[in-house]
Amino acid sequence: MSATQTPRQAMPEQEPAVRARNFEEVPLGYTPEMAMAEAGRCLQCKKPACVQGCPVNIDIPGFIKHIAEGELDKAIGKIWERNLLPAICGRVCPQESQCEGNCLLGRKGEPVAIGNLERFAADWEREHHACVLPSSDDATGKKVAVIGSGPSSLTVASDLVLKGHGVTLFEAFHKPGGVLVYGIPEFRLPKDIVAAEVACLESQGVKLESDVVVGRTVTVDELFEQGFDAVYLGVGAGLPKFMKIPGENLVGVLSANEYLTRANLMKAYLFPEVDTPIPRGRRVAVLGGGNVAMDSARTAMRMGAEAVSLIYRRSRDEMPARKAEIHHAEEEGLHFELLTNPVRYVGDDQGRLRAIECVRMELGEVDASGRRRPVAVPGSEFTVECDLAIVAIGSGANPLLPGSTPDLPLNKWGYVIADSNTGKTGKKGVWSGGDIVTGAATVILAMGAGRKAADSIHEYLTWGW
Amino acid sequence: MFTIVAREEMAAGTVILNEILAPSIAAKARPGQFLILKANEKGERIPLTMAETDPEKGTVTVIYMVVGKSTELFKRLKVGETYQDVIGPLGQPTHIEPGKNVICVGGGTGVAVLHPIARGMKQAGCNVTSIIGARNKDLIILEDKMRLASHELHVCTDDGSYGHAGFVTEVLKEKLKDGGVDQVVAIGPVPMMKFVSQMTREFGVPTMVSLNPIMIDGTGMCGGCRVTVGGEIKFGCVDGPEFDGHQVDFDELMLRLKAYAAEERCSHERCACEERGAQ
């Protein structure tokens, strides 16, 4: 049987009815047999388009060949050459629009399950500890401060420590990982996996200082005074957007940032075993159509909601969420209220949310985003009953760090201006990348920015600005 | 890190002072700013405005009333033990204008936050009259320190067990009637700040209050600490904690502060049960 005819190995998953009520990871992972069978489907293209589609250019055919040949211990080493966070990327990258989206097999049938295989290689290694991490170059004596510990910062840290530089990660929260720990739910990315990948960096020599709010506890200029030679700002977007409609401050209206931080970072779903509470809505409305909206809606189900509606102003085709997440959410019983826009929140006499008044939308002309602009249908107002609303309509640039770094050039929306090839900002010795430069995007794009910045920082530490 | 170097029980054990080793925070902290503290792995992140900082010793001091499980856990920490996490300094420092005629009004543990502000104002050449109050004599804190930080001090108790019998607002009203007041600073329970602000509005005296809304990260990321100020949404953690009392929607703030009342009771009762079970 030729490769194109072999069906793609389906990922074993928890049953929808079961998983919708627990926080365990949804996909269970391939067995070695399944991984080898799936790896056998790879055509080993001479000019692999999948690698072009990967923002960090992992040697995809290379690591897949090792799996196909049963050399599981070699597979992860191949990935580590370009990516020290494979267990995370294998789980949260939008493979369908990157590596797998470019796979030749996908033209006629189903692409190779590259994400599933990356995850398999990482998980297999974590269970067997069979591999030796790449060794660092000789110490250069240079010190780099990396602000934030999300995906772009972790990439910068891993690349620079391998080149022999001293790296310190500064994290404002009490735990490292950024959006990986406060934003992405346990059932999609278990937190012990993030902890293991951060521990792997620490074993490489990266120092971690949590509970440090750069901009408050210490400023960027003070870090230079303390002897750091370069600074990377990977602080994410992190300013919740609200719709600015009446009733937004009612009890029961939360930003997705708040809801997910309570659930993920503070483990509030375990309340009262842990001390941080979280609202348990009976009827929950989630506003938005991206991955954060899906994560919020699926968390609300697991918190015991009777009904969860996702309110999105465009149609299903325009939803920015990963296809797999939309599919998973739908299987778990999420209700889509499409082409619908909230106009005001309605409260009771105790200031608690009772309902959202909405209006139906239709799609008009294509707008600057390349999507058809939603337009309200006059007289189509209706009410969605709910006692919890989670606003997941995106994030803006958090001004805290830029505000304390007066000579750092920003654009008119408050994002840091950085060169897209190098990550260099307009302030000498300072690089930046990820959501604080691009606006809210994906984990792997942030990692791609981190990789470019790390190359540029290394060049600077070696040759000068 | 974050070791408790001094501990004091005030107001008959209902109010606790912790002086905590946190040199990098102490070096930076200014009056009016706050910290977020977390007792242990499973603990909540609790915002508390600093009562004192000592950059030379590298310490910061918080004074808090024991009201729920988290503050109960804080209370149980002994000298030499540590908070797992202390984050700060957060929020905007107090803006002090030199040479003004100021009345500082403090209620309950709010006096702890008011004290460095009153002292700072006195040092800046302001004429400081302070009015502090509590339910009864035992609950009055920092009276001596407030006396030093003020040119004139009035103490009120609701039950009349000490000083003026009645609310701080009664003394304040007399002072406002006398005229010549440039600014009022009011820090304490939300209803007190609300009534003070209502009164000073009548007299047209600018009034600053320090709010303590529910928050998680304290860096503007979660938006949980939203308050309506002058019809606009502000974040208590980065825009505050101090706001113009004439612009704050106190009723909304009170409703939002009660958002987790049921969960807090549950948590506190469980904590009390665990304590009894352990004995």
Q: How large a portion of the residues of chain B is in β-strands, by DSSP E?
A: 25-35%
Find the CATH superfamily of the largest domain in chain B: Nucleotide-binding domain of ferredoxin-NADP reductase (FNR) module
- Calculate Rg of chain B over CA atoms: 18 Å
> What gross morphology of chain B would you assign?
globular
Tell me how many strands of chain B there are.
16
InterPro entries (chain B): Cyt_c3_hydrogenase_gsu, Dihydroorotate_DH_Fe-S-bd, FAD-bd_FR_type, FNR_nucleotide-bd, OxRdtase_FAD/NAD-bd, PyrK_electron_transfer, Riboflavin_synthase-like_b-brl
Protein name (chain B): Sulfide/dihydroorotate dehydrogenase-like FAD/NAD-binding protein
Domain FAD-binding FR-type (chain B): 1-96
Organism (chain B): Oceanidesulfovibrio marinus
Characterization of the model:
The complex is a heterodimer of chains A (about 475) and B (about 280). Chain A has 18 helices and 16 strands. Chain A has about 475 residues and is an alpha/beta fold. Chain A folds into three domains: about 15-130, Orthogonal Bundle (Fumarate Reductase Iron-sulfur Protein, Chain B, domain 2), CATH 1.10.1060; about 145-235 and about 400-465, FAD/NAD(P)-binding domain (3-Layer(bba) Sandwich); about 240-395, FAD/NAD(P)-binding domain, CATH 3.50.50.60. In chain A, the strands form four sheets. Chain A has a five-stranded parallel β-sheet with strand order 3-2-1-4-16. In chain A, helix 2 packs across helix 4 (about 60-70). In chain A, about 55% of the residues are buried. Chain B has two domains: about 5-90, Translation factors (Elongation Factor Tu (Ef-tu), domain 3, Beta Barrel); about 100-255, 3-Layer(aba) Sandwich (Rossmann fold). Helix content of chain B is about 30%, strand content about 30%. Chain B contains eight helices and 16 strands. Chain B has helices spanning about 25-30, 70-75, 110-125, 145-150, 170-180, 190-205, 250-255, 260-279, and strands spanning about 5-10, 15-20, 35-40, 45-50, 50-55, 60-65, 85-90, 100-105, 125-135, 150-155, 165, 185, 205-210, 225-230, 230-235, 240-245. In chain B, strands 11-10-9-8-12-13-16 form a seven-stranded mixed β-sheet, sandwiched between helices. Chain B has a four-stranded antiparallel β-sheet with strand order 1-2-6-5. In chain B, helix 3 (about 110-125) packs parallel to helix 4, helix 5 (about 170-180) runs parallel beside helix 6 and helix 6 runs antiparallel to helix 7 (about 250-255). The mean pLDDT of chain B is about 95.
